[in-house]
């Protein structure tokens, strides 16, 4: 087992005549926070879906924790230690915050049969309470998730992604639609989690300030290809990146 | 007093009423009450499939039919009713599992048509396979079971026998929906893509929702056989699946007491409205329309709205559906 958590090798994907991703390769090491940015239509989402096994690439290979993930079901990927958040709100609105968090961990406890005959909380209330406390959601613990504000639901969504103790978390626009105060809280929690658990993050984000301050390395995509890769300060100064964003 | 205590108190009072209300009642009332308990069990199954797991099914009556015929054949062959009951539940579980496979590929109204077609196939098999099912003439003379020398032959005794089965079914239903499986069923209903990403095997849980829901239908059918002592295909036609669906929707899909309340309305209300002669079906239909317009979450939804006035609680924000697309 190497320190490489995610390995993307020569991924290409086209839809009809449109080449969405062209020969993209990169590795992500344990504990790294990688940002994946690019203007609209640059191929970020296609690449993300290839990494998550939801799209089969035309060529190339994705390996997570030494497992090839092509066409792997999301539930299997989750069992391999991959957590994710979604661009849109993805909590279970008619369940309490506590139940949302417990659900995110219960499938990792025992077998299907043991979950039926075991305790109704799958023995996870304590761990869920710790996760709720970590994301400072204690006051919302028993509220219905659907009754929370947008930003609060984003925090619940993030807490769910971490509940099973993943080694890799893919965050799809975590800052989208979140106000500045909540954004600061989210960023602080993600940084703390990364520091304390060594979890690897891959972040797709449009909010440049957020991604530049959170990530240790950034890959910039434009028209399906990697046009720049490096530390945030290098990316900020890269003329090719500026041109891609400003259409220069 | 916590919410849990309120639920326990409600269950105890309801059980006490179910024990004492039938005492001294005439046979017809006992028959109606027994029918209500039986349909409540069938509706519980559909509530699990539809209300909790979000999988539409228009085939619950066909599972009752399979359960009723299997039990009838086994008891008419001289075996005890318990064997028929177990066989009915086992067979409907397996058939429900198979019927669940289309649900992995089609959803919503497409799935409704798949299950509707299944109900029609079962009806045709029951009607056309005379050698097994008696065809249009059906099967008659199924005995009511004895347990350790205690007969259930009389209507009041049979009512209590069905009440025991109802309590067992409600207990199993409560256990399932409050287990991690229940949480997974709700997750499947609310957001299957997110559920899958959290490790929930949505394929398996979809199949289980169908299989368990169908087994409840089979169990209810196993009661119908000795209750009516005459079964024929018409009792399990599509209209009866719609009736069970109505029970779930009227009572409140996705709520524990929903199907019991819904079955009470669908079975008992026509009896209550019988004094209106030919108008009772019209009044009944109008009441259902008004209910669905005012409270799509059924009678339990009305109760929740009233409780909301007395003790406001949180509710799901409808604006977030748009907020999510920001």
Q: If you had to describe this structure to a student in words, what would you say it looks like?
A:
The complex is a heterodimer of chains A (248) and B (326). By secondary structure, chain A is an alpha/beta fold. Chain A has 10 helices and 10 strands. Chain A is globular, with a radius of gyration of 18 Å. Chain B has a domain at 27-238. Mean pLDDT of chain B is 93; it is low at 322-326. The A-B interface holds A 73-75, 77-79, 84, 86, 88-95, 99, 102-104, 106-109, 112, 115-116, 118, 120-122, 143-144, 146-148, 150, 153, 160, 163-164, 176-177 and B 176, 178-184, 186-187, 190-191, 193-202, 204, 254, 314-317, 320, 323-326.
- Per DSSP E runs of 2 or more residues, the count of β-strands of chain B stands at 4
> What percent strand of chain A?
25-35%
Greatest interface and its participating residue counts: A-B, 43 and 33 residues
**What is the CATH H-level superfamily of the domain at 4-91 and 166-246 in chain A?**
P-loop containing nucleotide triphosphate hydrolases
Tally of separate helices of chain A: 10
> What order do the strands of the largest sheet of chain A run in, or round the barrel if closed?
6-7-8-3-9-10
Largest sheet, spatial ordering of strands of chain B: 1-4
How would you spell out the order of helices and strands of chain B? Answer: HHHHHHEEEHHHHEHHHHH
The biggest sheet of chain B amounts to: 2 strands, antiparallel
Task: Please summarize the sheet with the most strands of chain A.
Answer: 6 strands, mixed
Specify the structural class of chain B. mainly alpha
- In percent, how helical is the residue content of chain B? over 70%
Instruction: Give the overall shape of chain B.
Output: globular
Report the portion of residues of chain B in β strands: under 5%
CATH-level-2 architecture of the domain at 4-91 and 166-246 in chain A: 3-Layer(aba) Sandwich
Task: Tell me the number of helical segments of chain B per DSSP (H or I, 4 or more residues long).
Answer: 15
């Amino acid at each position: 087992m190497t320190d490489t958590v995610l390995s993307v090798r020569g991924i290409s994907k086209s839809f009809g005549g449109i080449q969405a991703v062209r020969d993209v390769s990169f590795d992500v090491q344990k504990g790294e926070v990688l940002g994946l940015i690019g203007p609209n239509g640059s191929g970020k989402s296609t690449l993300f879906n290839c990494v998550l096994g939801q799209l089969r690439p035309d060529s190339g290979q994705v390996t997570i924790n030494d497992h090839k993930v092509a066409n792997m079901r999301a539930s299997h990927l989750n069992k391999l230690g991959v957590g994710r958040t979604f661009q849109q709100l993805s909590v279970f609105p008619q369940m309490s915050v506590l139940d949302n968090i417990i659900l995110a961990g219960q499938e990792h406890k025992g077998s299907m049969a043991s979950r039926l005959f075991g305790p109704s909380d799958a023995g996870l209330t304590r761990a869920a309470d710790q996760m709720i406390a970590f994301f400072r959601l204690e006051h919302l613990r028993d509220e219905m998730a659907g009754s929370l504000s947008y930003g609060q639901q984003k925090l619940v969504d993030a807490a769910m992604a971490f509940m099973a103790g993943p080694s890799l978390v893919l965050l799809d626009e975590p800052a989208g639609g979140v106000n500045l105060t909540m954004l600061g809280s989210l960023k602080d929690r993600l940084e703390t989690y990364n520091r304390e658990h060594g979890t690897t993050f891959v972040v797709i984000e449009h909010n440049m300030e957020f991604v530049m301050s959170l990530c240790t390395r950034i890959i910039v995509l434009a028209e399906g290809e990697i046009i720049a890769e490096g530390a945030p300060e290098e990316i900020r100064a890269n003329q090719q990146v500026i041109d891609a964003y400003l259409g220069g | 007093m916590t919410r849990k205590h309120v639920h326990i108190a409600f269950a105890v009072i309801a059980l006490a009423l179910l024990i004492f209300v039938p005492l001294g009642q005439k046979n017809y009332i006992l028959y109606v009450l027994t029918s209500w308990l039986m349909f409540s069990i069938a509706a519980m199954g559909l509530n699990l499939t539809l209300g909790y797991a979000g999988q539409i099914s228009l085939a619950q009556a066909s599972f009752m039919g399979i359960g009723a015929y299997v039990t009838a054949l086994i008891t008419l062959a001289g075996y005890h009713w318990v064997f028929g009951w177990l066989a009915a539940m086992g067979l409907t579980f397996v058939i429900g599992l198979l019927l669940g496979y289309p649900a992995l590929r089609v959803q919503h109204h497409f799935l409704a048509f798949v299950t509707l077609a299944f109900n029609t196939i079962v009806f045709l098999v029951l009607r056309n396979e005379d050698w097994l099912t008696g065809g249009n003439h059906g099967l008659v003379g199924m005995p009511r079971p004895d347990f350790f020398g205690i007969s259930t032959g009389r209507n009041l005794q049979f009512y209590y026998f069905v009440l025991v089965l109802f309590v067992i079914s409600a207990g199993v239903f409560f256990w399932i929906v409050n287990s991690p499986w229940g949480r997974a069923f709700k997750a499947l209903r609310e957001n299957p893509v997110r559920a899958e990403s959290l490790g929930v095997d949505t394929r398996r849980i979809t199949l289980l929702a169908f299989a368990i829901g169908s087994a409840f239908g089979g169990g209810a059918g196993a009661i119908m056989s000795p209750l009516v002592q005459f079964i024929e295909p018409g009792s399990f036609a599509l209209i009866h699946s719609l009736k069970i669906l109505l029970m779930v929707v009227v009572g409140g899909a996705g709520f524990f007491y929903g199907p019991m309340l819904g079955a009470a309305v669908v079975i008992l209300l026509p009896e209550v409205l019988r004094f209106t002669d030919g108008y009772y079906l019209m009044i009944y239909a109008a009441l259902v329309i008004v209910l669905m317009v005012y409270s799509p979450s059924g009678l339990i939804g009305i109760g929740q709205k009233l409780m909301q006035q007395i003790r406001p609680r949180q509710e799901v924000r409808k604006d977030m559906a748009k907020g999510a697309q920001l």
